[in-house]
Specification:
Blueprint lengths: L1 H12 L3 E7 L10 E7 L6 E3 L15 E5 L4 E6 L10 H18 L5 E6 L23 H12 L2 E3 H6 L8 E2 L16 E6 L6 E6 L7 E2 L2 E5 L2
Parallel strand pairs: 5-6
Antiparallel strand pairs: 1-2, 3-4, 4-5, 6-9, 7-9, 8-11, 10-12
């Protein structure tokens, strides 16, 4: 299996880490989506859950949310559903956003939350290279941006903006369709580290990392002082 080969390679590359993952299962399309996290074996062993958040079917079976509960905080990894090229999934995506926001907000009632992943939305016009021509494209609709507004208003800080303000030209995703998208820095910032407001003052770094010429998503870094 392809998944087994990937897991084997990761184990070889990162022997000091434990790997946890979930892949979409029926009634969702098998192997369609998924999430994965690696955590250092030297850390306290977390409680790992794959929550179902009450999203429209079959999104709860697409392996989109993974939570690691450590003694003093939660780390949540998300792969937010794309609204589709024709926006055929926009309504369902909005209901997903509402369910995910409620889930994160519930977690913050007990301890700080660090939520990372592909949120599939560029929040403001400075979060993508060509906002005017993408106004009605998936990931930059008014509806999706309003849902991200609501998520931040629910008690979360966009760690990158917290550290860097309104800096422009910072993107985390470059289309593989265009061979020059990364060369020309024609990208979108759709990957985030969100931090619950009760821990925002602990952020020490939030950076977009260089991944060379490879397109698609790039790594992002969060450093906290806990």
């Amino acid at each position: 299996k392809k998944t087994d080969k990937v897991l084997s390679a990761l184990t070889d590359f990162f022997p000091e880490y434990t790997i946890v993952h979930r892949i979409s299962t029926p009634p969702a399309r098998k192997g369609y989506a998924g999430t994965m996290m690696l955590y250092k074996n030297s850390l306290p062993e977390p409680r790992v859950t794959f929550p179902e958040i009450g999203a429209p079917e079959p999104m709860d079976f697409e392996g989109r949310v993974m939570t690691l509960e450590f003694p003093d905080f939660f780390v949540v990894n998300v792969y937010t559903p794309n609204s589709g090229r024709a926006l055929d999934r926009l309504s369902a995506r909005g209901k997903w956003d509402d369910a995910y926001r409620a889930y994160l907000k519930q977690l913050t009632e007990t301890k700080p939350v660090f939520a990372c992943g592909d949120f599939n939305v560029a929040h403001t016009e400075i979060d993508l290279k060509n906002p005017a021509s993408n106004h009605h494209a998936a990931g930059f609709t008014d509806e999706e941006r309003a849902k991200f507004d609501a998520l931040l208003a629910a008690g979360f800080s966009d760690s990158f903006r917290h550290m860097h303000g309104d800096i422009e030209g910072a993107y985390t995703w470059f289309s593989q369709i265009s061979k020059t998208s990364k060369l020309n820095n024609t990208g979108w910032r759709i990957d985030y580290w969100l931090v619950s407001q009760n821990a925002a003052d602990k952020i020490r770094a939030s950076e977009i990392l260089d991944s060379g010429s490879r397109q698609d998503h790039v790594p992002i870094l969060l450093e906290m002082e806990l």
